[in-house]
Fold these 2 entries.
Entry 1:
Amino acid sequence: MTPVAAPETQPPRAEVKAAVELYLALHRAPELSGAEHATAALLADRLTALGLTVHRGLAGTPSFLAELRNGPGPTVLIRTELDALPVTEATGLPYASTVPGAMHACGHDLHAAAALGAAARLAATRAGWRGRLLVLGQSAEETLTGARALADDGLYDRFGRPDAVLAQHAAPLPAGTVAHATGGPLMAGSRTLDAVLHGRGGHAATPHLAADPLLMAASAVLRLHTLTARESAPAEGAVLTVGTLHAGTRANVIPDRATLSLGLRAFTEPALDRLHEAVRRVLDAESQAAAAPRPPELTLTARSPVLTPDPALTAALRTVHAGHLGAGRVLAAAPSPATEDLTHLTALPDGTHVPLAYWMLGTTPAATWRAAATEGRTVPANHAPDFAPDLRQALPTGITALTAAARHLLAAGPPTVGAVPPHPEAAP
Ligand SMILES: [Zn+2]
Ligand SMILES: [Zn+2]
């Protein structure tokens, strides 16, 4: 499939080089959720150099919003996350993380470099469009807290509500491709819960005098996993994972409490509500069964709404991307139980929606993809220590996908003598 030439949206060599260097710098120096100070400063400085006005430190976090006012027209917001994960990198790459125990294992460095690349492209071609470009660098996505903090802090009250929000996410699909939702949800909604099971501590030699919270927790973990298997319809796509379990300090001491944290995911809010209540019921029942001295505590620590891209916008951008990348590089994305907190800025509390376009960005090198398919293996995916995006393919694709999407939404600029004619997609 021959891509349609689109000089306004395809980054020239010098811009790709700058984006690659930015990616390498971000990848070498990952910062964990809420502590992305150097990452935010680096990106904000680059955006300032491109001529954008940057509002830093939003909601008392490293999040920033960069703004390029370019005459009357729509407001388009491009969002990138900033945070890395507490994962020890095992890619063996020459530009691997230099920070022990931290890695850009979700590809947020790729998103940031692509967003900056798109901002550079749009700034360089500003004669060809009108409107307002916003680039949001969002802190703390992995903890599902950063977007909520911005929403609670009144981001749109302060800077206006955008006409569309654009975002993409690295995914284990062939590098050089993008994949759009085919209607309906693209990512699950989620709840993160912390639980404390109370027991009565004592000597290991006299368990009959104690109420063992460790046994309660062990039993609860097994029982909790039956909720998705036996209390949720398969079509709800529910997933439950107990991610932490802590109890006790010595082999000869029965502890007085056990703590666990778990995540719930599903594709409808009612399914999440029901599972949340079922978790409470199981923990209460296990405590009662063990004659616990007091009931357990269950706390909701984070949540994210179901991510459903705007159907009309998605259909339009699928066509735009096919025009700029070639139809063979635009795939259909299956719904994923992954979650995304950007929905706090698009599915608003008053029940209205800011149109969201969200697509997956393929990162797997072609050779890896072929070998895995031949041998029936899976390819390294996000959050894995060996997740290694194919930079040379994925980054230019990500820049073009964002730029073309923004240009489709922004108004066409006035024709000027000798200028490249406005792209046909650029009309509002
Ligand atoms: Zn992630
Ligand atoms: Zn992510």
Entry 2:
Amino acid sequence: MRQDDCQPVLLAAGGRLLQSASGGLVAMPAELEALHSEVIEAQYPLGPDAADGRLLVLHADTEPALRQPAMALRDALAQARNESEYGWLSRAAQLATWHEQHRFCGRCGAALIHHAQDLAKTCEPCGLSQYPRISPCIIVLVVRGDQCLLARAPHYAAGRFSTLAGFIEAGETAEAAVAREIQEEVSIEVQNVRYFKSQSWPFPHALMLGFFADYKAGELMPDGVEILEAHWFSRDNLPDLPPSFSISRQLIESYRRGELG
Ligand SMILES: [Zn+2]
């Protein structure tokens, strides 16, 4: 997907990443040469160093004729060869969404312009600045003895089970969100909540904070809305699981290896 000796350049328009003629998301040299500067609405760095590459946002009404059918972001992330590559793909997708959805000031309605120093947009009339939106979520693997809790949400592929997850509410700690989400979704109590790791999750701008937790009390009772089924699974009898690049799968694999933090 990426040539090791060149900076990746990704293209976006209308809030979405554009597929390259290569079949991936990194633009080919010929595609970049064909771009006139006036079709580029904005550009953003894909990391702290210039070598990390750039995202070029094109005016929505001047998308290049060489645009290929849209590539599903999940497919692109699944092709990432390491965490670094995953990171700049995730960042590009989130910046494309943010650029598209934050064009005007939420306080006075004036058009936003790029901030002089920060990766942000700012409003000249009233001074309000808007940074790329990030929505913190918890994602948790609950363990009971030698079993773990996995659940099915309505939008999952048939047969797939995953960890429980949810957005952190305003004013709430991540640990409190773990206890609340599990209580709301499957009606049990947990204890000994402990941090695992985090992952940027660009659907569309989540930051997943991963945790393990131990079962404390209660009977599994899915809410029937966000969770349709929930069961305790042993290490040697796991169902169809989320893709390997997801933090959900990393939580489960850590449990499978007996590494519970
Ligand atoms: Zn304003």
